[in-house]
Amino acid sequence: MMNLLGRPDIEAGEVFVNFNQNITSLAVATKTGYSLYSLSSVDLTLDKLYSCHTDAIFLIERLFESSLVAIVSVSSPRKLKVCHFKKQSEICNYSYSNTILAVKLNRERLIVCLEESLYIHNIQDMKVVHTIRDTPCNASGLCALSSSSEHCYLAYPGSVTSGEVQIFDAINLHAKTMIPAHDSPLAALAFSPSGTEIATASERGTVIRVFSSLDGTKLFELRRGLKRCVAIASLSFSTCAEYLVSSSNTETVHIFRLDRSATEQAETKQSSDDWMGYLSKTVTSYLPTQVTDVFSQGRAFTSVTLPEPGIRRMCAITTIQKQLRLLVASQDGYLYVYSVPSIEGGECQLIKKHDIRLDESYPMDIKVDSPQPLGSAGGALVDGATENDLTKQNSSDGVTYASAVKGEEKAVLS
Question: Which residue of 14, 143, 218, 322 could cross-link 331, Cys pair, CB 3.0 to 4.6 Å?
Answer without folding.
Answer: 14
